[in-house]
From TrEMBL:
S-S bonds: C49-C54
UniProt-recorded name of the protein: Dihydrolipoyl dehydrogenase
Top EC class of this enzyme: oxidoreductase
GO biological process terms held by the UniProt record: 2-oxoglutarate metabolic process
Keywords of this entry: Cytoplasm, Disulfide bond, FAD, Flavoprotein, NAD, Nucleotide-binding, Oxidoreductase, Redox-active center
Domain of life: Bacteria
Cofactor: FAD
Catalytic activity: N(6)-[(R)-dihydrolipoyl]-L-lysyl-[protein] + NAD(+) = N(6)-[(R)-lipoyl]-L-lysyl-[protein] + NADH + H(+)
Principal cellular location given in the protein's record: cytoplasm
Cofactor binding remark: Binds 1 FAD per subunit.
Binding, FAD: K58, D321, M327, L328, A329, H330
Length: 482
């Protein structure tokens, strides 16, 4: 390790490792500091996303869906089988293998691009110095021309439900469950909670989701949230909103936990053999900054930055989960690119109005831009186009007809303001609208594009046509202004 670097990146998650690689590509002498140790005690790159977040959860979601589809839906295609079973330990082992492959891949990319790695924790000192404490306790201070803080986040723990061995788990611990629970409780009905609930519900577990807020998926478009709740209930998820957990009691001998919560009916109790706490995440900023480092935090521990991810200390940037905005891997990665290119003197910027979000339930839920509720609250005049997958020939052929595409456009200019999809391949379909919005497209623009047939993408095309009552494959509703 040298004594000085052009760029020091703290954290090798999806924001940090991308920033480090881009910095090296631009010719900067780059050091990336990572403290994450895997179960074998070895440094693992990729942060939360690759180790205990996006990737492992999707591996389990895909495995569980394939099992569910084989068990319940193959007969519709004329495929018959005898008793089908799933080896949960093998499913988890596959997940671990994918994580290992991808995290090792980042190490290879670092080597290929000339990024130097320091294994240990980092602290930003005054004068743009970084103190690095290795896992063996040794300390080294390096000088940096520029610093990018990408230290990520960790699950929020709540006093009424303290973690306990393998019975009460956070989202990280939940990924290590290797036997199908008989009865699973999930505190939190957000993205993480619903994905964890979906995995085990498909494998035969009785799952109860306990959500404190009265509204289900309050951050999503209301029409989509309503459809999602209906479909998830049909799949067997027991979703209880307006339910505030007040306490838990673990019986270690029986290997179960009793959860107490309050709802509109009063005090309720439920007994589970596993409980997952998924109520959100908090930024990793503890012991990260010296008092005189010149970087300020807000009351929740997030780092103050401007629209270009610059802190109040010139030359120090912060990206990803430690700054404002949604805690999404792709947002972190793009902020990393912006930060590095600003360091290089480029006029890079990011459009925060066009960041897609996805919930990987089945069907998938995806969104970008404004919701209908947000437009109503702002008093903006808008138009709506909705097209159901039930009217899509490709969706029918795939037995994936649940859900719809919804597009919102400005009443006067026709510019696309938002899109909300619940249905097959929603995560990929939403990106078509993201691209359109980035280029300032109108709903008419989307409606004039030739889409391949038969494809699921045609649902986006038809929803755009439906904005002005021109959809072909459904009966159009009488146009009305909002």
């Amino acid at each position: 390790m040298s004594d000085s670097y052009d760029v020091v990146v703290i954290g090798a998650g999806p924001g940090g490792y991308v920033a480090a690689i881009r910095a090296a590509q631009l010719g900067f002498k780059t050091l990336c500091v990572e403290k994450w140790l895997n179960d074998e005690g070895k440094t693992s790159l990729g942060g939360t996303c690759l180790n205990v977040g996006c990737i492992p959860s999707k591996a389990l979601l895909d495995s569980s869906h394939k099992y569910h589809e084989a068990r319940d839906d193959y007969a519709l295609h004329g495929i018959t089988h005898n008793d089908i079973a799933i080896d949960v330990k093998a499913m988890v082992a596959r997940k671990d293998a994918i994580v290992s492959q991808l995290t090792g891949g980042i190490a290879g990319l670092f080597k290929a691009n000339g990024v130097e790695l320091a294994e240990g924790s980092a602290k930003v000192l005054a004068g743009k110095k970084v103190e690095i404490t290795a896992h063996d306790g040794s300390v080294k201070v390096v000088d940096a021309t520029s610093i990018i803080i990408a230290s990520g986040s960790s699950p929020v723990n709540i006093p009424p439900a303290p973690l306990f061995e393998d019975i009460v788990l956070d989202s990280t611990g939940a990924l290590k469950i290797d036997e199908t629970p008989k009865r699973l409780g999930v505190i939190g009905g957000g993205v993480i909670g619903l994905e964890m609930a979906s995995i085990w519900n498909r494998l035969g577990t009785e799952v109860v989701v306990i959500e404190a807020m009265d509204d289900f998926l309050a951050m999503m478009d209301g029409q989509v949230a309503k459809e999602a709740r209906k479909l998830l209930k049909k799949q067997g998820l027991d979703i209880r909103t307006g339910a505030l957990v007040t306490g838990t009691e673990v019986d270690a001998d029986k290997r179960e936990v009793t959860v107490t919560y309050k709802d509109a009916k009063g005090v309720q109790t439920e007994v589970f053999d596993k409980l997952i706490v998924a109520v959100g995440r908090r930024p990793h900023t503890e012991n990260l900054l010296a008092a005189d480092a010149g970087v300020k935090l807000d009351e929740r521990g997030f780092i103050f930055v401007n629209d270009f991810c610059e802190t109040e200390m010139p030359g120090i940037y912060a990206i990803g989960d430690v700054v404002r905005g949604p805690m999404l891997a792709h947002k972190s990665s793009e902020e990393g690119i912006v930060a590095v290119e600003r360091i290089a003197g480029k006029k890079a910027q990011m459009n925060y109005d066009c960041i897609p979000s996805v919930i990987y339930t089945h069907p998938e839920i995806a969104a970008v831009g404004k919701t209908e509720e947000q437009l109503k609250a702002a008093g903006d005049a808008y138009k709506v186009g909705v097209f159901p997958f039930a009217a899509s020939g490709r969706a029918m052929a795939a037995n994936e007809t649940a859900g719809f595409v919804k597009i919102l456009a400005d009443e006067e200019t026709d510019r696309v303001l938002g899109a909300h999809i619940i249905g097959p391949s929603a995560a990929d379909l939403i990106q078509q609208v993201v691209i359109a919005m980035e280029f300032g497209s109108s709903a008419e623009d989307l409606g004039m594009i030739v889409f391949g047939h038969p494809t699921l993408s045609e649902a986006v095309h038809e929803a755009a046509l439906a904005v002005d009552g021109h959809a072909i494959h459904i009966a159009n509703r009488k146009k009305r202004k909002k």
